[in-house]
Amino acid sequence: MQPIVIVGTGLAGYTVAREFRKLDSDTPLVLISADAGGFYSKPMLSNAFAQGKTAATLVTASAEQMAEQLRAEILPHTQITAIDRATKRVYVDHGERRYAKLVLALGADPLRLPLQGDAVADVLSVNDVQDYARFRHAIEDKRRIAILGGGLIGCEFANDLVTAGYQVSVIDIATHPLGRLVPEAVGTCVRDALSALGVDWHFGVSASTVDKTSDGLRIGFNDGSSLTTDVVLSAVGLRPRAQLAAAAGLNVNRGIVADRYLTTSDPAIYALGDCVEVAGLVLPFVMPLMQGARALAKTLAGAPTPVSYPAMPVVVKTPACPLVIAPPTLGAAGAWDIQVDTDGVRALLREPNGVLLGFALAGAACAEKQALTKQLLPALA
Ligand SMILES: Cc1cc2nc3c(=O)[nH]c(=O)nc-3n(C[C@H](O)[C@H](O)[C@H](O)COP(=O)(O)OP(=O)(O)OC[C@H]3O[C@@H](n4cnc5c(N)ncnc54)[C@H](O)[C@@H]3O)c2cc1C
């Protein structure tokens, strides 16, 4: 019997494998991963300092332990280079593996700004536990860290690193943090809370150069100003890893296009997690991939099950300013109803007829998360 092959051992790959094993203990399962294959919770990367975690302690099970738990064969440090759909094979660095069904759980790549300068290669990003190890090493004997991007991940790192004693600067083209997700009043709350800890903000500018100087790295901005720092961390967004699927002739849009059964344009190939696009939605968060993994496990076990997404608010890990965001789906048109109190901000995005489209809660208003979530429509019914 040919195995089910899962490419990727992130939360998506491991969760679908675990869910599948609850339903089917016999079908051979192979997981292939470009990385070391250890299990870790990726969201912890941006608050690991505060919790005293190193790259090694973030990994809670090795590839060998996961293989035993899942009764699966795991091939770590193995990059898939191509998919041959006609013969149902994937090509790896030194050979090939056949599959009956293939699950692409490839994740997403960090976006990079088009920077110039002789220190561009020194700009770091943290998108997996290996990156985190490199980053920790790079900042070991340093003091100043500049973060490119004041979005969700940039703000989380800023909170974590400033708490750990670093001198943190955040650079963002918008006028306030989380500019694409929350209205200004909520962004201001985050800005003020992190400023109080010492974060230095640079809004309305974009980094265009990074150069080495005798005193560290100099970031040049598009308005002619500059900032000198020791380490530059880029957190400007992610792009689904879809190149392998595109090269194999699968439908690709922003992500690997899949239907509600997470089936790609090839009925033997599925996609899950940060790399997938379902009904036009690319949702690079844990809750959607958990929903997807449960549905896909049933489908792989012989009971085709469509995925549905409830409303899925995201808790932002900025303890200086507790924050919950339920971003509206793309294109949703509404108006923000904003209530600012001394201890928080409650921003509700409503349609003219009163229907709640999304929300952003800061500080004490976070207590309303559950009640408001119940009022939201499912992201995919
Ligand atoms: C710093 C940070 C903080 C976050 N915080 C939150 C949060 O608080 N809440 C939340 O909901 N979400 C959060 N997220 C997002 C969440 O972590 C991701 O949505 C989720 O972990 C994605 O899992 P994945 O398995 O799809 O991708 P990944 O974890 O990226 O796994 C992809 C896997 O594919 C493998 N791979 C890729 N290409 C190949 C290839 N060609 N051959 C073989 N293997 C390959 C990789 O080696 C890896 O094993 C955060 C993300 C980051 C980066």
Unreliable residue stretches: none
CATH topology of the largest domain: FAD/NAD(P)-binding domain
How much of the sequence lies in strands comes to: 25-35%
Strand order of the largest sheet: 3-2-1-7-18
The bound ligands are: flavin-adenine dinucleotide
Q: How many DSSP-defined strands?
A: 24
CATH superfamily of the largest domain: FAD/NAD(P)-binding domain
- Using only C-alpha atoms, the radius of gyration works out to 22 Å
Structural class: alpha/beta
Taking the alpha carbons of the first and last residues, their distance comes to: 36 Å
Q: Can you characterise this structure?
A:
The protein is an alpha/beta fold. The chain folds into three domains: about 5-110 and about 240-300, FAD/NAD(P)-binding domain, CATH 3.50.50.60; about 110-235, FAD/NAD(P)-binding domain, CATH 3.50.50.60; about 320-375, Enolase-like, domain 1 (2-Layer Sandwich). About 25% of the residues lie in helices and about 30% in strands. The strands form seven sheets. A five-stranded parallel sheet has the order 3-2-1-7-18, with helices on one face. A five-stranded antiparallel sheet has the order 20-21-24-23-22, with helices on both faces. A hairpin with a 5-residue loop joins strand 23 and strand 24. Bound molecules: flavin-adenine dinucleotide. Flavin-adenine dinucleotide binds near residues 32 and 287.
